[in-house]
Backbone:
């Protein structure tokens, strides 16, 4: 590939990212009701402050926040939570418009929004490694002739030009795929993305063989493998790709007004989340059992447990709400490597780094 080809591809990716963010933020501005930044008062009877959190599909990556909600940890800090399912960058749109108070979103989205002139303070981390792993159809696995420990270069070469399902074109798995092609010495143009709308859509595409590959968070790859129609191909969340570890991937973001008007609530949210994150690692068997029974009952249990174990082994699930400078810098390096614009003042949106 020539240097001019590389520059042209980078410019094209930046244009696409800019267009996507402009559309997203424009839609958010149209729906904004002025309620996204109000002070949340405690309920007179319960003393709880109710917050609505935009979140993607249920994943073991979100074990801590789910466990905190279901086991009274948020309630102990006088917080009542309601999750609203929102995919991709739309979580920021919902928060900007006032439909939700916080958004669990891919970390690239608030940084990209800052480039477009819209700030979303990042108040906590959920993922510190890529939650998605790559799976392929059972037929493609047989065709590949590869092994679990085959080099990344060989695996990515096999996937070049093949239909690859993702939940959202703005999601972290889309950029992750492009980055892995780059790590393998291939072109980002080899990534043939198919937006399937959700993890279930990607799984349906794999079952029907409309797509050859898909990337999504655990435990879905492990469950698909257990059910026999797909194979876990690249265990990213388990640490198979070192360049993608210790990288900030999933965060909790709010609007500037919400952060300014709810400092005590944000502090209490971080305390509660931190308690749950600690339990995910120190009482893993107890937490995993609860997550399985309450969110994945009916799926192959061993597959679900294997999925969350992979994420812990790769340290993909954040261990504390505070964002480290190193993980944020690795995020920025990842974004720049995949042609995503990063403003020089990116640190300003991280409450743990801004000072």
Residues:
């Amino acid at each position: 590939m020539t240097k001019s080809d590389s520059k042209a591809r980078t410019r094209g990716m930046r244009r696409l990212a800019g267009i996507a963010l402009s559309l997203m933020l424009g839609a958010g501005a149209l729906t904004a009701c002025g309620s996204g930044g109000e002070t949340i008062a405690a309920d007179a009877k319960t003393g709880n402050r109710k917050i609505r959190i935009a979140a993607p599909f249920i994943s073991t990556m979100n074990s801590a926040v789910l466990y905190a909600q279901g086991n009274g940890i948020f309630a102990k800090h006088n917080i009542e939570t309601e999750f609203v399912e929102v995919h991709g960058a739309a979580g920021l749109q919902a928060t900007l418009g006032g439909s939700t108070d916080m958004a669990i979103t891919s970390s690239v989205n608030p940084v990209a929004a800052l480039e477009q002139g819209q700030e979303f303070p990042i108040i906590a981390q959920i993922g510190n490694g890529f939650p998605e792993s790559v799976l392929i159809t059972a037929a493609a696995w047989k065709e590949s002739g590869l092994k679990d420990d085959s080099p990344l270069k060989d695996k990515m070469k096999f996937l070049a030009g093949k239909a690859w399902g993702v939940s959202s074109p703005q999601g972290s798995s889309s950029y992750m795929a492009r980055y892995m092609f780059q790590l393998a010495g291939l072109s980002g143009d080899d990534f043939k993305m198919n937006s399937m709308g959700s993890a279930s859509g990607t799984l349906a595409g794999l079952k029907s063989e409309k797509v050859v590959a898909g990337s999504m968070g655990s435990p879905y790859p492990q469950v698909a493998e257990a059910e026999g129609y797909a194979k876990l191909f690249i265990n990213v969340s388990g640490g198979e790709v070192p360049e993608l570890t210790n990288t900030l991937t999933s965060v909790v973001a709010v609007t500037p007004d919400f952060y300014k008007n709810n400092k005590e609530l944000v502090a209490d949210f971080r305390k509660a989340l931190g308690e749950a994150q600690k339990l995910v690692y120190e009482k893993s068997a107890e937490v995993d059992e609860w997550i399985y029974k309450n969110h994945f009952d009916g799926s192959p249990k061993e597959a679900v447990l294997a999925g969350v174990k992979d994420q812990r082994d790769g340290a993909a699930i954040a261990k504390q709400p505070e964002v480290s400078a190193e993980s944020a810098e690795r995020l920025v390096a990842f974004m720049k490597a995949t042609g995503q614009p990063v403003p020089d003042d990116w640190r300003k949106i991280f409450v743990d780094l801004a000072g």
In short: The first strand starts at residue 49 and ends at 55. Residues 6 and 187 are 9 Å apart (CA to CA). The first helix runs from residue 3 to 31. The chain is about 45% helix and 15% strand.
